[in-house]
Amino acid sequence: DQQVKQNSPSLSVQEGRISILNCDYTNSMFDYFLWYKKYPAEGPTFLISISSIKDKNEDGRFTVFLNKSAKHLSLHIVPSQPGDSAVYFCAASANSGSARQLTFGSGTQLTVLP
Amino acid sequence: KAGVTQTPRYLIKTRGQQVTLSCSPISGHRSVSWYQQTPGQGLQFLFEYFSETQRNKGNFPGRFSGRQFSNSRSEMNVSTLELGDSALYLCASSFGGSPYNEQFFGPGTRLTVL
User: Fold this and answer.
1) Taking CB atoms and an 8 Å limit, are B99 and A107 in contact across chains?
2) How does pLDDT run across A84-95, given as a tens digit for each residue?
């Protein structure tokens, strides 16, 4: 049973427009959420995170929104650039003391068209 | 500062064999986590080591094991390989002292089981 789901395997957006990537989770114990970006032949790199005490976190062109009642988070990229083309993974974790185990979604391939 | 390194980058084995993968974390990082990435499944957590002790473990069979050395370098071993073990194996390191420490990923080891 996948606790973190990214239902769109791919997304194409025109350069300059907004990209919206979505993620749903089922485990109500998750209290910390992250987005990672992955280019081919490289490991994932951290993009942005949000704690469950917030509903929005912004970092430059990237904004993450969290809707706890719907168990849904989204990543907005504005404006989208061709260099943003990559696989985006959302991840979630529950606080278990000092250890954190990240549970990842299956990823969404974003393609930004010039 | 050097990033997370993983060796080898590519590996081809046959069913029934065993394999050992290596991960060198960023200098100063004491936590190393291992993930398996397969198409459509995202990244699945294998285990985490902190100060030479396994601190967290995912839902993988006992054929998957790991260890961490005093210099924080970690190895992952898979015994009696199966075709389904073909995947990208990623390790990630962090300071590990706080559950909010960012995880930095290596480029991964691509394992193919024939």
Assistant:
1) no
2) 999 999 999 887
